[in-house]
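[Automated response] Your request has been received and processed.

Submitted sequence:
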Amino acid sequence: MSTDSEIIMGRVSDGHHTFDELYEHRHMLFINLLKLSMGVYSRRVFRTRKHDDGSAFEGWFIAGMETQEGQITYHLPDRLWGLLDGVNTLDQMEHFDGHTSADVVERLKELAK
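Generated structure:
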């Protein structure tokens, strides 16, 4: 359940898009990247509801892929789980390489080269 501050933050706009809209764009772009990557990384594209320590965030799942640059993962809302049908579903993440948000951006840049 969202708090009042989360609801307000999601409506904050830069004059063009709200945070909610930008996150929805990120979610859809990442889902499409994973599906397109199935041919390249096949078994290394995954979704799971649990972290490598067995913990989970209610209402969210982890989607990601293992690349030559390292892991790229995001938490996505449960309502999007079905859009990744056909992707390797794990009981829990096998390992977490410790990547940060900044690492993910750098890894995505490297993959784009």
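Summary generated for your ticket: The chain has a mean pLDDT of 89. Residues 4-112 form one domain.
If you did not submit this request, please reply to this message.
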